[in-house]
Amino acid sequence: MTEDKNLYDVVIIGGGPAGLSAGLYLARARYRTLILEKDDFGGQITITADVVNYPGVASTDGHKLTETMRQQAQNFGAEFMTAEATGVDVDGDIKVVHTSRGDLRTFGILIATGASPRKIGFAGEQEYAGRGVAYCATCDGEFFTGREVLVVGGGFAAAEESVFLTKYASKVTLLVREEDFTCDAAVADEARKNDKIEIHYSTELQSVSAGSGGLVEATLLDRTTGETRVWKPADRGTFGVFVFAGYVPQTGLVKGVVDLDDHGYVITHGYLETSVPGIYAAGDLRVKNLRQVITATSDGAVAAVELERYASDMSAKTGLVPPRPENSPYEKSEKEAAESAAASGTSPAPVTQAGEQAPAKTSGFFGPDIRKQLDVVFGRMAAKLILKLELDDSPVSQELHTFIDELVGLSDGLLTTRVDTAPGSQDFDPAGDLPDARPNVRICRVGADGEAEETGLAFHGVPSGHEFNSFVLALYNAAGPGQQVDQATSDRIDAISDPVDIMMLVSLTCTMCPTTVLSAQRVASQNGKVRAEAYDLSHFPTLKDQYQVMSVPCIVIRKGDQETVEFGKKSVPEVLDLIGA
Prior knowledge:
The protein is an alpha/beta fold. The chain is built from 14 helices and 27 strands. Strands 21-20-22-23-25-24-26-27 form an eight-stranded mixed beta sheet, with helices on one face. Strands 2, 3, 4, 5, 6, 7 and 18 form a seven-stranded mixed beta sheet that branches. It has a five-stranded parallel beta sheet with strand order 9-16-10-11-12, with helices on one face. A hairpin with a 5-residue loop joins β5 and β6 (about 95-100).
């Protein structure tokens, strides 16, 4: 057997529950495994606020659940790459996955790209997306506090998210297209018995229209009688629409490669193999009767065991062996525990399923797991940075100051601070600078004279919650070497010759915002003509009102005398498209 360092046993395309579970199983069995994800690891479940039906976990949220899965897979030795899969070559014993960061050679491939929310096509849906029409209750529910909302759908998501939205909305009107819900009765009953939810069956949303400040009326169709009527909230104010009408399988990558059904879902056989040997599919993109996180993780485990067999057979056939995972955190933890026990004559300390010793309780912003992640980032930074704090006399300023001080204290001298305290302004003049909204932290490089040189990267508010990772990666991108992008994308960034300001309006509860913030700031870190500043809307309501933001992320791009407003998660290439680069 010959070891091939440029070969994987399995490449998993998709970092949701199916992909993470498969990665966990494969890596634990000591197969070299790469999990490829173009956006945030975790998949669609990360936008779910309450997960109460995952066995063994009484209650959690989607982000926490999948972050635990990711950590488990990593602890067993799975490798991760943030990049977009652009194609696959599946002929022969060694297959190739083409990505935005180069080609990956592998014996087996698991397709686990999931599905994305379906748009239903009512009049005004596209026009008012982000300004009253939304698809994520966790991200956007808070924007409708005290207002009425319409929810469209009759499945699991519509029933569950309707209940969640009652935390914010004064009333929820649920429009079910069929004669009854299409989900389990227990889930539907939670919506039925909620006093703040009114349900209309056999009803479709045909259109919405807006007035000053948001949506003001909707046209509903009674599918039984064929009659239409105009609906308005009781207070005759503005309202929101949340669409939960199922998902569209993300199978474009393998269209024409493996067999799909008439709806675009992958057809799998007994143990999740597709029509092509060595290509397996798991999760919401395949034909199945239930799409829930538990069935996705089950798919991942089943496919992983079959891929173990397939990779082993291909290794025996070709005589090639990918390098095996070694010195994984799991193995190190078990070895250290055993050595400690042998030295002390006591039993090893209890370990979690992922092999981590039970963490000690810590105080402050950063627990032991986050500190480990920070150590990795700080260990790779090529230069020191200065964090310039622009504060005022608000409690949020004190929180930001404490947050940054603790972060700097963990950086082993790589980070220092400069503090400026003065009143700030939220006013945004399209012909002037981005608003000097305080408090904020600006990421600066250290100039030749030791002074702070701004990079154009800033966060207004406290970069905690879902924005913590994007802020830390902004430090890495500013200090270098930074996250890799493919050569074509890098050339597009370098080619930007005119000044561009990007203002990102975000919420710390939004799981889609960090991708957009990170993408814009990755561009700004490489090209000094670009500024990319994020604003936590919970602290800067003036900006929310100015742009009538009812969905996050909201991206405001100013280039010369032109201003563009966009909504939704954006990758680096998509940000460049918006810039016109």
